[in-house]
Amino acid sequence: MTDDRHGAPDAAEKADLRTQGGGAADTVVVLSTAPDVLLAKRIAHILVEESLAACVHVGAPGVSMYLWQGKLEGGEEIPLTLKTTAARLTALHDRLRALHPYEVPEFLVLDVRAGAADYLDWVAGMTMQ
Prior knowledge:
The strands form three sheets. Strands 4, 5, 6, 7 and 8 form a five-stranded antiparallel beta sheet that branches. It contains four helices and nine strands; from the N terminus they run ββαββαβββαββα. By secondary structure, the protein is of the alpha+beta class. 30% of the residues lie in helices and 37% in strands. It has helices at residues 11-15, 37-49, 89-99, 117-126, and strands at 2-3, 8-9, 17-19, 27-34, 55-58, 62-68, 71-85, 108-111, 114-116.
């Protein structure tokens, strides 16, 4: 594809973006939290070391407010953003639950519509079984 005005590659072509079609090797993003930084780093370390996630971003602490068993709860949590593949989701979920102290840890899976081809390839390579 080219930009008709200048004959130059359009933005998607320059960035080598690739769309994903919902296959097992497709990159997905998982959102979770941990109750403290030390545990967040431990979970991240183990999940990456075991190739269940290519990367885990440990975010800055924030306050979460929620109802639990009919009672308003609130406390500081550490957000975790995990990059993995659809094929690794079940194993990742099982391992996260085993490492996590919460009865019901957050585990939300977000589809990735497209991304830089080299990054998507890297995620797939880092999480191969």
